[in-house]
Design brief:
By secondary structure, the protein is of the alpha/beta class. The chain has 13 helices and 16 strands. The chain has a six-stranded parallel β-sheet. The longest helix has 16 residues. It is an enzyme of class 6 (ligase). It catalyses: UDP-N-acetyl-alpha-D-muramoyl-L-alanine + D-glutamate + ATP = UDP-N-acetyl-alpha-D-muramoyl-L-alanyl-D-glutamate + ADP + phosphate + H(+). Its EC number is 6.3.2.9. It comes from Actinobacteria bacterium BACL15 MAG-120823-bin78.
Length: about 350
C-alpha cells in the first residue's frame, strides 16, 4: 500500500504521523513524476528553482528563454501544470523548468536536476515549518541532487548556507561579478561564469531589456539567465527573451494612473520580503496591507520601509501586527484600519 501526500499537509498532522509510523509508503507528486520520467521521457532535462519570492516570475522567464532558443520547454510544478501533467505527453518536452515550494521540497527525495537556483530565503511559512532554520533547510534541499547550484550572492541567508553544497556553485549579484559569477556592470548584465575565460565577460542583455527595471526584477533575470546558461543556451537568445518578457498579473502591475497618482497591484507580495521589494520600488506609497502573517515578523519590514510609506490602510486577520510595528517604528504615519463588514460573504457580488 502507498499514500500520496498533498504537499501542504504538515508532517505533524495525526494522519500523516500515523502513515509515517506504519508500513505504508509515503509518496509525493514530484518523486512520482521523476520515476515516470525514465519510461516516458528518459532524455528530458529538469532544472528547478525555489525561493521565498520571485519564483513564478523567474521560472516563467527561464522557460521563455529556452523557448526563444528553440527548446521545447515549459514551466511547471508550483505554477501551471503539475509536473506529472507536464511529463505525461505523447510528444515530451525537452526541458521541464520546475518551480518548487518549501512544502514540495520537504517531501521530495528523488528528483535530480541539471541545475537548480535558490533566489532568496526570508521569513515565510514559519507556522508550517516551525522555525526559520527548518524552512531554510527545506529550501536548500533542492541542491541535494543537483549538478550546478545557482545562488543569490546578495541574499545573506543563502550565502551563509552555500557551503552546504560541495558541487559547482555559480553566484549572481546586482554588483560587479567576480570571475565565475554573473552580475551587473554599469548598464549591462554580464556573464563571467559560463564563458571560456572567466577573466572576461560576455553581455547577457542591457538593463533596459528588463521590465520593470527594478532591483528584484533584475535579480530574477540574472537567475533565469544563469539557469539557461547552465544548459548551454546562447546569450543572444537570453537577451531577446528577456527583452520581450513581461511579469504575470499582480506583480507590481500598473492598474490605473490619474491626477498624478499611480495605482499598483502587487497582491502577490504575501510576505515581508516581497512587500519590502515592492515598497522600495516607489518613493511615496499609500500602502494597503494585511492578511495572514504566517509567523513572519513585521518589524524589520516597517523599520526599513517607513520612509517610503505615506499612509497605511490595514485590513485582514493580522493587521494588528503591522499596526504594532508602525506604532513602534513610524508612529507619525497615518493608519486606517478597515473592519470586515458584518454581512461579508466570501465570493459575494461586492467585497467592498
Amino acid at each position: 500500500d502507498a499514500a500520496v501526500i498533498s504537499p501542504g499537509w504538515r508532517q505533524d498532522h495525526p494522519l500523516v504521523v500515523q502513515i509515517l509510523n506504519s508500513s505504508i509508503e509515503m509518496l509525493n507528486e514530484i518523486d512520482i513524476a521523476w520515476s515516470l520520467r525514465s519510461e516516458r521521457a528518459p532524455q528530458q532535462k529538469w532544472i528547478a528553482l525555489t525561493g521565498t519570492n520571485g519564483k513564478t516570475t523567474t521560472v516563467e522567464m527561464t522557460a521563455a528563454i529556452l523557448q526563444a532558443a528553440g527548446i521545447k520547454a515549459v514551466a511547471c510544478g508550483n505554477v501551471g501544470d503539475t509536473v506529472i501533467d507536464a511529463l505525461d505527453r505523447a510528444d515530451p518536452y525537452d526541458v521541464l523548468v520546475l518551480e518548487l515550494s518549501s512544502f514540495q521540497l520537504h517531501w521530495a527525495k528523488q528528483a535530480h536536476f541539471d541545475a537548480a537556483a535558490i533566489l532568496n530565503i526570508a521569513d515565510d511559512h514559519l507556522d508550517w515549518h516551525g522555525s526559520f532554520d527548518a524552512y531554510a533547510d527545506a529550501k536548500f534541499s533542492i541542491l541535494d541532487r543537483c549538478e550546478i547550484a545557482i545562488l543569490n550572492a546578495d541574499d545573506a541567508p543563502v550565502v551563509t548556507r552555500a557551503n552546504r553544497f560541495t558541487g559547482k556553485k555559480v553566484f549572481y549579484t546586482l554588483d560587479t561579478p567576480a570571475p565565475g559569477e554573473i552580475g551587473v556592470v554599469e548598464e549591462l548584465l554580464v556573464d563571467r561564469a559560463f564563458v571560456a575565460d572567466p577573466q572576461e565577460a560576455s553581455m547577457i542583455c542591457e538593463l533596459a531589456d528588463i521590465t520593470p527595471t527594478v532591483p528584484h526584477s533584475v535579480s530574477n533575470a540574472l537567475a533565469a539567465a544563469a539557469l539557461a546558461r547552465a544548459i548551454n543556451v546562447p546569450h543572444q537568445h537570453i537577451q531577446s527573451a528577456l527583452h520581450n518578457f513581461r511579469p504575470g498579473r499582480h506583480r507590481i502591475e500598473l492598474v490605473h494612473e490619474a491626477s498624478g497618482v499611480v495605482w499598483i497591484d502587487d497582491s502577490k507580495a504575501t510576505n515581508p520580503h516581497a512587500a519590502a521589494a515592492s515598497l522600495m520600488s516607489h518613493l511615496s506609497v499609500i500602502w494597503i496591507a494585511g492578511g495572514l502573517a504566517k509567523g513572519a515578523d513585521m518589524e524589520p519590514l516597517i523599520e526599513r520601509c517607513a520612509p517610503r510609506i505615506k499612509a497605511a490602510i490595514l485590513i485582514g486577520a493580522d493587521r494588528g501586527l503591522i499596526e504594532a510595528a508602525l506604532i513602534k517604528y513610524a508612529p507619525k504615519i497615518p493608519r486606517i484600519l478597515i473592519d470586515t463588514p458584518s454581512d461579508y460573504i466570501r465570493g459575494g457580488d461586492s467585497n467592498s
